[in-house]
């Protein structure tokens, strides 16, 4: 074993054959914890243990599951400071932002526990003229074992918002967290084990790199929910295609914000700077490009530059954004800033000097070419590209031409809804930023390269259940299209009758 212990790197990304993950405390750079890496055997064992309890979990019914989800919620809240400290250490975000992840998770658990029965309850559906004396209904049944693969940027909230839906719908879950934040997932699972001691295997976590994620998929999942980069999303979708395993993909984004001529510029500037810089810009729904109508462009740029210049960066208690836990991400941020500057943009705040080794300070790039990397590819850093547009129509056209389609924001006093409705994206905040991610009743997901499927809301609960349709005979089949020995001419008569009814409905006459 010892000869295989990998060198500690700042991000812990040390290759697929490593047997151990070494995480670091992002504030100090010192070793934080070691976790054994799960291989194929562990993945198969976890999926098999999950399968062995999935029936008992489903048999509890919606109320029985809701009761246990609420017990889990109490455990999460009781150890919330411990969870927040783990997020702060492994991800590096300020402690208060880590607490927000815990708070958000509590909200998601409550929504799923309170709403699963209503959304997924058995539903009677009407009969049809060709199926007389038949009752019909639909039940929403769980897939069985759901694998959840998560990212590092919101190591608790992102996978939790997904797995609560899967659990409430009656599935057992195996979570494979990011290799950068394994402790957070272990803490969540420990809270489950305390809350539901009779069925601990309903929620498990497996630590590891990409190979562990692959092994989890190979172990025979009934559904996979993947959150991460577009490139990995394509790889896992291709792997799932081999076994026709259904997959939910929550991938990257390049979220645009439109600042219309009638926007409240003070409000817009405050929300846009927060939406772009919070969490060090490490958000799939971070605002990355601002399309600003020319009549308000200069004033808006002045306001956001002033605010962005005040954002406190570091790991001290008063820091508002923390370090970049992935050195490779720092290189991407630098490349995007450099490309924009070389193509004529200017930095009103930050610039290349803002990109240090571990910390990246806010950067506002103005006059960015619409096809620059900073305007088209996910930067995932505390940067905002500003593009001047003639009107909101031009801004809408820019956003809709992008390959992603996750979140967005629109600032306008009078036309916010009208502009927002024309955007081909999954979510839009009007006169605010990122708000849709904080309400568990709001479906969350994207289109295009941002993936497909939805977490949160009623759609999120349905995502983890499949419709099982039932029909039951309630009396003799007086007339039925689905039987042998139909009377001669009965179907011809039925077809002629159907035509007459349709023509009567539309007021036409038969020839
Ligand atoms: P990533 O794609 O590098 O890794 C995501 C997860 O996949 C990790 O757990 C990783 O170990 C695992 N993985 C890697 N290779 C794999 C493979 N071949 N098979 C199975 N699993 C594999 O992404 P990341 O850097 O951790 O996360 C950042 C990305 O996630 C950004 O693009 C961000 O936009 C996106 N994200 C999206 C959402 C959303 O809801 N749409 C939310 C948060 C983050």
UniProtKB/TrEMBL annotation:
GO molecular function: oxidoreductase activity, acting on the aldehyde or oxo group of donors, NAD or NADP as acceptor
InterPro entries reported in the protein's UniProt record: Ald_DH/histidinol_DH, Ald_DH_C, Ald_DH_N, Aldehyde_DH_dom, Aldehyde_DH_NAD(P)
Pfam families: Aldedh
Catalytic residues of the enzyme: 250, 284
Keywords of this entry: Oxidoreductase
GO biological process annotation, one example: aldehyde metabolic process
Name of the protein: Aldehyde dehydrogenase
Taxonomic lineage from the root: Bacteria, Bacillati, Actinomycetota, Actinomycetes, Kitasatosporales
């Amino acid at each position: 074993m010892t000869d295989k212990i990998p060198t500690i790197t700042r991000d812990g990304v040390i290759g697929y054959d490593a047997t151990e993950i070494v995480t670091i405390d992002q504030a100090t750079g010192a070793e934080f914890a070691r976790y054994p890496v799960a291989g194929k055997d562990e993945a198969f064992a976890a999926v098999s243990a999950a399968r062995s309890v999935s029936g008992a979990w489903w048999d509890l019914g919606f109320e029985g599951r809701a009761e246990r989800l609420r017990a889990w919620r109490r455990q999460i809240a009781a150890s919330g400071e411990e969870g927040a400290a783990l997020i702060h250490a492994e991800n590096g975000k300020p402690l208060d932002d880590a607490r927000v992840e815990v708070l958000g998770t509590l909200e998601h658990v409550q929504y799923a526990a309170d709403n699963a029965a209503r959304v997924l309850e058995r539903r009677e559906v009407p009969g049809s003229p060709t199926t007389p004396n038949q009752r019909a209904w639909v039940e929403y049944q769980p897939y069985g074992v759901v694998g959840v693969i998560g990212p590092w940027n919101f190591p608790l909230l992102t996978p939790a918002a997904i797995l609560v839906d899967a659990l409430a719908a009656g599935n057992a879950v195996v979570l494979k967290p990011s290799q950068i934040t394994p402790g957070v997932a272990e803490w969540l699972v420990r809270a489950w084990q305390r809350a539901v001691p009779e069925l601990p295997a309903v929620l498990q976590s497996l630590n590891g790199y990409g190979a562990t994620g692959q092994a989890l998929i190979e172990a025979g999942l009934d559904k996979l929910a993947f959150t991460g980069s577009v490139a990995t999303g394509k790889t896992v979708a291709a792997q799932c295609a081999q076994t026709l395993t259904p997959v939910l993909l929550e991938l990257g984004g390049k979220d645009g914000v439109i600042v219309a001529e009638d926007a409240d510029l003070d409000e817009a500037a405050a929300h846009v700077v927060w939406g772009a810089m919070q969490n060090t810009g490490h958000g799939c729904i971070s605002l990355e490009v601002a399309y600003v109508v020319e009549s308000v462009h200069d004033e808006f740029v002045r306001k956001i530059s002033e605010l962005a210049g005040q954002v406190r960066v570091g790991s001290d208690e008063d820091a508002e954004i923390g370090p970049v836990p992935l050195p490779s991400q720092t290189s991407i941020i630098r490349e995007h800033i450099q490309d924009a500057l070389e193509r004529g943009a200017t930095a009103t705040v930050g610039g290349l000097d803002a990109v240090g080794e571990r910390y990246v300070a806010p950067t506002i790039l103005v006059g960015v070419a619409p096809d620059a990397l900073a305007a088209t590819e996910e930067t995932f850093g505390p940067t905002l590209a500003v593009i001047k547009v003639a009107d909101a129509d031009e801004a809408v056209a820019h956003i809709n031409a992008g390959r992603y389609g996750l979140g967005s924001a629109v600032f306008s006093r009078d036309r916010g809804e009208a502009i927002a409705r024309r955007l081909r994206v999954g979510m839009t905040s009007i006169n605010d930023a990122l708000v849709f991610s904080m309400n568990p009743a709001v479906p969350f997901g994207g289109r295009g390269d941002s993936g497909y499927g939805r977490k949160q809301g009623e759609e999120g609960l349905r995502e983890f259940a499949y419709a099982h349709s039932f029909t039951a005979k309630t009396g003799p089949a007086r007339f039925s299209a689905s039987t042998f020995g139909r009377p001669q001419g009965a179907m011809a008569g039925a077809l002629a009758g159907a035509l007459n009814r349709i023509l009567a409905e539309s007021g036409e006459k038969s020839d």
